[in-house]
Specification:
By secondary structure, the protein is mostly helical. It is built from four helices and no strands. InterPro entries: HMG_box_dom, HMG_box_dom_sf, HMGB.
Length: about 140
């Protein structure tokens, strides 16, 4: 089942095309004209192979174009967040950074994640852990 798209703000800037996409736009027509019998999937495969074979010097114009577009996008996003601060934390808004602190279990929390039924192994592990705590008076851990 496909995920439903989250509605984005209509004023939100679109992300810039990557260097690969920029190359693809330039070269797809050339490959299509040189090989008119190839289906679209094969055309993309041929262009992808050509892109992988490019040297750094040949790839530089596409990378530079992407970097310029990325700088413009970053500026446009900051302006967007100034005008619409409520969108900064919205899902898909680009405001949250990767690797942000996740809510996790605190030490000693034996409860399974909310909304998820515990598996048989989890139930068995919790029972064994509780028996060990009663018998020895301490928690079983990796450092012990």
């Amino acid at each position: 089942m496909a995920k439903a798209k989250t509605a984005q703000h209509p004023d939100k800037p679109k992300r810039p095309a990557s260097a690969y996409i920029l190359y693809m736009k330039d070269e797809r027509e050339n490959v299509k004209n040189n090989h008119p019998d190839l289906p679209p999937k094969e055309i993309i495969r041929v262009v992808a192979q050509q892109y992988k074979a490019l040297s750094e010097a040949e790839m530089k114009p596409y990378v530079d174009a992407y970097e310029r577009a990325k700088e413009d996008y970053d500026i446009a996003m900051e302006e967007f967040f100034v005008k619409h601060p409520e969108e900064r934390g919205a899902k898909g808004a680009g405001g949250a950074k990767k690797g942000a602190a996740k809510k996790g279990k605190e030490d000693g929390d034996d409860k399974p994640k909310k909304g998820r039924a515990p598996t048989a192994f989890i139930l068995f592990s919790q029972a064994c852990r509780n028996k060990y705590k009663k018998k020895h008076g301490k928690s079983l851990g990796f450092k012990e």
